[in-house]
Amino acid sequence: MQTISLPYGRGRVEAQIPDQRLAAVLRSGAQSYRPQADQDQLVRQALENPIGTPPLRELAKGKHQVVIISSDHTRPVPSKVILPQLVDEIRAGSPSAKITVLVATGFHRPTTREEMLDKYGQELFLRSGLHFAVHLSGKDEDMVSLGTLPSGGKLLINKLAAQADLLVAEGFIEPHFFAGFSGGRKSVLPGVASRTTVLANHCSTFIDSPFARTGILDGNPIHRDMIYAAQQAKLAFICNVVIDEKKEVIAAFAGHFNEAHRAGCAFVEQLSGVSAVPAPIVISTNGGYPLDQNIYQSVKGMTAAEATCAPGGVIIMVSACSDGHGGQSFYDTFAQEPDEEKIMASFLATPSDRTIPDQWEAQILCRILLKHPVIMVTQAPREMVEAMHMHWAPDLSAAIDLADRLLGRADSPITVIPDGVSVIVKK
Q: Is domain 39-271 given the CATH code 2.120.10.80 in the classification?
């Protein structure tokens, strides 16, 4: 028997799988990668050797209003490691500059004060002299226009970012299920963009594109809009990191928002690429907290399972979802319509200027459900999970038993993906 231990919320869950049933365990190389320096040193080295730009302290000279875009509570960006060093660099170039940390919530709910304390720590959040602001994508009065996206949508972003003397961003790079990779240009769009802009960028036509997939940038229409938005916002400098299973920095890339990001993406692709091992049962996770706080985010880990699940096979998604479904319209899409074919047809018939909130996540979940039953091992209420056309299981062992019943046999091979958001599954 093999004991499989998987991240779940802030803890782990386990199940035993017979040796003869375990087809493969698909892991990112990030979990075994051993960096040559500690977290602080890696970030410092990146800042001292920026890619495609002068050092941040040089860029900061003569600047008075500096904005640092920072990822929100749903992203495991180690801000306690990155942000103090960004601040030191800025103050080395402009000691009197006002520095505002703009929390990039994108289309998510606002980050709470408690979540910011947890993310930044008391010293940084309360005593550093930094100003903190939370982006609200639906607050029209906070937005300014920067023109039109290549896709034709309006480009509206937070005026704090648009009016800054110097715009900087922190973030992390991991595979992303429709933007190719996280990080870089995503700090602006969707990070600090208006809901109007996000809806246009995340339209059904783009989500349906074969290039809007994990690990793909070239030809990706969503990425193209994001690059344009970052250019128009004058995003001058980024510091993006790569993290391991413990959410610790194993590599850092700083400099030009596209050149440094591309270098980081190449590193992640080399580490994270795994060959698909098709199986009738595939178990995946969202890597634990904070990415498995809701069903909405959990769709990401499901796409890794989708890429290696045999036709008609069952996906088991292990995700705590302590915050419930994560989006009312996302939930309502499934709760109000039992026919997945009708749901998908409705998405594909929706023009880009009529995209509804969370449509993209629902569209991808629907794509998966049209091919595979999904079993959720989760804290989310059973009735919520079932209303969204999925099965509920109280633990991993029960989920495997249920998958066996759905398949009509008790010996189907199982492929396990311990962290579905950290891998690029290549067919």
A: no
